[in-house]
Design brief:
One of its GO terms (molecular function) is DNA binding. Belongs to the DNA photolyase family. It catalyses: cyclobutadipyrimidine (in DNA) = 2 pyrimidine residues (in DNA). The chain has a 5-stranded parallel beta sheet, sandwiched between helices. The chain has 22 helices and 5 strands. It folds into 3 domains: 123 residues, Rossmann fold (3-Layer(aba) Sandwich), CATH 3.40.50; 116 residues, Serine Threonine Protein Phosphatase 5, Tetratricopeptide repeat (Alpha Horseshoe), CATH 1.25.40.80; 174 residues, DNA Cyclobutane Dipyrimidine Photolyase, subunit A, domain 3. It is mainly alpha-helical. The chain binds flavin-adenine dinucleotide (FAD). Flavin-adenine dinucleotide binds next to helix 10, helix 12, helix 15 and helix 17.
C-alpha cells in the first residue's frame, strides 16, 4: 500500500534547472519520494523549439543538474502530457509539481496537462519561481497591463519586496530513478558539427557557475555597471541572462543578494535591468502574439524588403560596418552579444536594410544562449518601433558614430574583426574613409579582406523613414 511517506511525486524540471530557491521541488520533497523529471518537448514547442545555442547550453546545464542530483535525473523526449500520464500510471504518482513558465505554447500545454491530471485524480500543482512577481500582478490602478516601462517599474518598486528564496530541500534517500528513462545523450542536444569552441571557452552552464557569477558581481559591488554597461569591451555587465533563462539562478536570489547594496546607484541600475525582464514577461503574458505579430498594427502595412542576400551578409557579420559585424560575429562565436550592440545590429537590420524584425529575431533565437521568447520578442519590437514601449521609428542608430562613442579604443571591434586590427582608430569605425596607403599598411583590402559598406547610411536612413511614412 502506498502511504503518504512512501508515495512518489514528480518534480518536473523545466526552466528551473536549480536546487536552491525551487519551491516546486521543496513541495514535492515535502510530500514523499521524488521522481525528478526533464522532458524535451519539441512537439508542443512547434516553431519555438530551442535553437542550436540554447540546446548547447541545455545539455551542459542538465548534465550539471544531474550531477547535483547524484545522477538520478530522469530524461524523456516527446509530448510532455503523454509522458507524464504514463509515468503517473507506472509509479502510482499522486502529485505533479512544476515551476510556472509563461511562453504562450507552454501555458496552453500546461493548462491541458493540469486538466488531464486533475481528471485522473492526480494533484497538479504549479509554483512561482521564474520571476520576481507573477506577470499578472503588476497592473495599472485603472486595470489592464502596463505598456510603458517607467510606470511599470515605479509600480513594481512600490510593491512589498519579492518573496524570499527558499533553501534547497534535503533529498537524501528520496530520489527515485526510472530504469526506462533515457540517457542525456539520447536527447541529441550536442551539436553535430563542432561549431561550439567559442561557446565552450566563454560559458560554464549550471547552477554552481550561476551562483559564482552572481557572487563575483556582488563582491565587486557592481562596480562600473551603470556607465560601463554601455561599453561592449568592458567587463561591466553580469552575463547572467542565460543562467536566468534556464533558471539556474532565480531573480529572487539575485534580488536578495543585492539587498545589502540597495542604496548604491550601480546596483539600482542593475536591478532596473532585471525589471526590464519582468516587463517583457508581463507583455508576453498579456500579448501572446508578441513573438509573431506587430504590436502596433500600423506596421502590418510596412513594405519590408527582406532581401535574402542582405540578410545573409548581416547574419555573417559582413555588412562593412565594423560595430555591426563585430556584434554579429560575437553572436556566432560565443552565443551572446552585448546589449548595446544588439540594439545597433537590430536597428541596422530593421531600418537600414528594411528587413522584417521577425527574421532578425529568428536568427537571434537560433544563435543566442540566452534566447528567451519574452525578452527577444519585446526587444526586437522595441527596436523596430512596432512594440508597446517602442523606440520611435525615426531613432535610427548610426553604427559608425555609436562605435566611436561606445568602443572608442576599438578593443571590441578588433577582438571580433581581426582583419581590421592594424587599422588606426581614426579609420577603424569607417574603413572606407582610410587613404589607400593606410589600408595597405594595415593589410586591409576593401572588398576582399573586409567588405565595403553594403548600404549608404544616409540614404538608407531616409529610405526607411519614407517607407515608415507610407504606413501612417
Ligand atoms: C534585439 C535584442 C534582442 C534581445 N534578446 C534577448 C534574449 O533573447 N534574451 C535575453 O535574456 N535578453 C535579450 N535582450 C536583452 C539584453 O540584451 C540581454 O538581456 C543582456 O544583454 C544580457 O546580458 P547580461 O546578463 O550581462 O545583462 P545585465 O546588464 O547584467 O542585466 C541583468 C539581467 O537583466 C535582464 N536584462 C538586461 N537588459 C535587458 C533588456 N533590455 N530587456 C530585458 N531584460 C534585460 C537580463 O535578464 C540580464 O541578465 C535582447 C536585447 C535586444 C536589443
Amino acid at each position: 500500500m502506498i502511504t503518504e511517506s512512501t508515495a512518489t511525486h514528480i518534480h518536473w524540471f523545466r526552466q528551473d534547472l536549480r536546487l536552491e530557491d525551487n519551491p516546486s521541488l521543496v513541495a514535492a520533497a515535502r510530500a514523499g519520494r521524488v521522481l525528478p523529471v526533464y522532458i524535451l518537448d519539441d512537439e508542443n514547442a512547434g516553431n519555438f523549439r530551442m535553437g542550436g545555442a540554447s540546446r548547447w547550453w541545455l545539455r551542459r546545464s542538465l548534465s550539471a543538474l544531474n550531477a547535483s542530483l547524484g545522477g538520478t535525473l530522469n530524461f524523456y523526449r516527446g509530448d510532455a502530457g503523454e509522458i507524464l500520464d504514463e509515468l503517473c500510471q507506472r509509479f502510482g504518482v499522486q502529485e505533479v509539481h512544476w515551476t510556472r513558465c509563461y511562453e504562450p505554447w507552454r501555458i496552453a500545454r500546461d493548462t491541458a496537462i493540469k486538466k488531464a491530471l486533475t481528471a485522473a485524480g492526480i494533484s497538479a500543482r504549479s509554483h512561482a519561481g521564474a520571476l520576481l512577481f507573477e506577470p499578472w500582478s503588476i497592473s495599472k490602478n485603472s486595470g489592464g497591463y502596463y505598456q510603458i516601462f517607467s510606470p511599470f517599474y515605479k509600480k513594481l518598486r512600490a510593491q512589498d519586496a519579492p518573496d524570499e528564496p527558499v533553501s534547497k530541500p534535503a533529498l537524501d534517500g528520496l530520489l527515485v530513478e526510472d530504469p526506462q528513462a533515457l540517457a542525456l545523450d539520447a536527447l541529441e542536444l550536442a551539436p553535430r558539427v563542432a561549431w561550439d569552441t567559442g561557446l565552450c571557452a566563454r560559458w560554464e552552464p549550471g547552477e554552481a557557475s550561476a551562483l559564482d557569477r552572481l557572487a563575483a558581481m556582488v563582491d565587486a559591488q557592481f562596480e562600473d555597471y551603470a556607465e560601463g554597461r554601455d561599453f561592449p569591451a568592458r567587463d561591466s555587465v553580469s552575463r547572467l541572462s542565460p543562467h536566468l533563462h534556464f533558471g539556474e539562478v532565480s531573480p529572487r536570489q539575485i534580488w536578495q543578494a543585492t539587498e545589502p547594496l540597495e542604496a548604491d546607484p550601480q546596483v539600482e541600475a542593475f536591478r532596473r535591468q532585471l525589471c526590464w525582464r519582468e516587463f517583457s514577461y508581463s507583455l508576453l503574458f498579456h500579448v501572446p502574439e508578441l513573438p509573431t505579430e506587430n504590436f502596433r498594427k500600423s506596421f502590418d502595412a510596412f513594405a519590408w524588403k527582406n532581401d535574402p542576400t542582405q540578410l545573409a551578409r548581416w547574419q555573417q557579420g559582413r555588412t562593412g560596418f565594423p560595430l555591426v559585424d563585430a556584434g554579429m560575429r560575437e553572436l556566432w562565436e560565443t552565443g551572446t552579444m552585448h546589449n548595446r550592440v544588439r540594439m545597433i545590429a537590430a536597428s541596422f537590420l530593421v531600418k537600414n536594410l528594411q528587413i522584417d524584425w521577425r527574421l532578425g529575431a529568428a536568427w537571434f533565437w537560433d544563435c543566442l544562449v540566452d534566447a528567451d521568447l519574452a525578452n527577444n520578442s519585446a526587444s526586437w519590437q522595441w527596436v523596430a518601433g512596432s512594440g508597446t514601449d517602442a523606440a520611435p521609428y525615426f531613432r535610427i542608430f548610426n553604427p559608425t558614430s555609436q562605435a566611436k562613442k561606445y568602443d572608442p579604443d576599438g578593443r571590441y571591434i578588433r577582438r571580433f574583426i581581426p582583419e581590421l586590427k592594424s587599422l588606426p582608430n581614426k579609420y577603424l569605425f569607417n574603413p572606407c574613409s582610410a587613404p589607400e596607403s593606410v589600408l595597405e599598411a594595415a593589410n586591409v583590402r576593401l572588398g576582399k579582406t573586409y567588405p565595403r559598406p553594403m548600404v549608404d547610411l544616409k540614404q538608407s536612413r531616409q529610405q526607411a523613414l519614407d517607407a515608415y511614412q507610407l504606413t501612417r
